[in-house]
Amino acid sequence: MAALPTPLARETEAKTPDAEPTVVPKRHPARWLTAVALLLIGAATLRSVFTNPRFGWDVVNTYLRDVSIGRGLAVTLELTAICMILGVVLGIVLAVMRLSVNPVVRSAAFLYVSFFRGTPVLVQLLFWYNLAALYPTLTFGIPGLSLDANRLITPLVAAILGLGLNEAAYMSEIVRAGILSVDHGQAEAAGALGLTRMQTMRRVILPQAMRVIIPPTGNETIGMLKTTALVSVLAVPDLLYSAQILYSRNFQTIPLLIVASIWYMVVTSVLTIGQFYVERRFARGNRTLPPTPLQRLRQMLSTHAPIATGRQS
After folding, report:
1. Distance separating alpha carbons of residues 79 and 157, to the nearest angstrom
2. Exposed/middle/buried for 209, CB within 10 Å: 0-12, 13-18, 19+?
3. Which residues pair with 137 in a beta bridge?
């Protein structure tokens, strides 16, 4: 005769499952409704834009590859590169001056940053363009030297001075924040090894500060690309000014503004991709690198990953 199971055995059998429990993901209906609403709004917007004949997409297609637009784009890229190089180099110098132990040097850098950050960029551009009204001749304190300011300060030179010097004020704060993010013990260790202050800054501090400096510098570069549109008030033949010249002749204002916007967006997208990979390069060894767009695409196309249950083995 078989023995009856004890209460302890029956309780053990009840607690032991025959199979692993099925993990059911939590449903989020609000997210799906929001996504559907956004898709509907986006589709309606695109339909309205591409079916409205007043946008003049045939004119956009015609002038998108126009020679004058291409020349204006080249001037915009040239201005962006020159002004950013000037801003970065002078910004590093100003940041080092802001951290100097000399109060005169520190105060001079502070006054520079305060002035250029406190006045609009457009005002600075107009000021440099009209510098000859204040100084018809430039001597720079050198005997026998006399330069005509009207010939020296061309619209392009005024644009470079206005944008580059203004950018230096913002870059100095970015560089200063990066330098301050490095532990002070690094400078003390470099000094103990016999490195001078400049050697310590160039070989020890700045390479480590690049992780903090690079992301906002990329944003400043993209911002500089769009800020160059202000030089159109100085008749510098940049991308926007070239579009303005064209639509002043054929009165196709909206299509040509769309052409300029498309090229701005293309260059901005390229700069954004470049910024992403530069950030990955300087973030090595500091944190987990984010996946590249190609890696994200591969993850989406790969087989479904197992769902984590939250239990630890």
Report:
1. 10
2. buried
3. 148
pLDDT by residue (tens digit) across 117-148? 999 999 999 999 998 888 888 777 777 777 88
Report the C-alpha gap between 240 and 292 in whole angstroms.
Answer: 33
For residue 89, the SS3 value is helix
Which candidate, 306, 304, 234, 302, places its Cα nearest to that of 79? 234
Phi, psi (degrees; rounded to nearest 5) at 120: -65, 150
Q: Cα 13 vs. chain centroid, distance in angstroms?
A: 62
Please, what is the angle between helix 206-227 and helix 155-180, to 10°?
Answer: 150
Average pLDDT over residues 260-266: 95
DSSP code of residue 234: G
Integer Cα distance of 241 and 229 in angstroms: 8
Q: What is the pLDDT of residues 197-244, one digit of tens each?
A: 788 887 888 888 888 888 889 899 999 999 999 999 999 999 999 999
CA proximity to 152, closest of 137, 141, 133: 137
Give me 302's structure tokens.
């790969």
**HSE-up of residue 147 (Cα within 13 Å, Cβ side):** 12
Direct distance between the N- and C-terminal alpha carbons of the chain, in angstroms, rounded to an integer: 42
H/E stretch holding 138: strand 137-138
As a whole number, mean pLDDT of residues 56-83 equals 93
d(CA 228, CA 76): 6
- The SS3 of residue 233 is helix
Residue burial 149-179, b: 16+ Cβ < 10 Å; e: rest: eeeebebbebbbbbbbbbbbbbbbbbbbebb
Query: In angstroms, rounded to a whole number, what is the distance separating the alpha carbons of residues 74 and 66?
Result: 13
Give which of 228, 129, 141, 220 is closest to 173, Cα–Cα.
220
Please tell me the distance from the alpha carbon of residue 32 to that of residue 2, in angstroms, as a whole number: 58
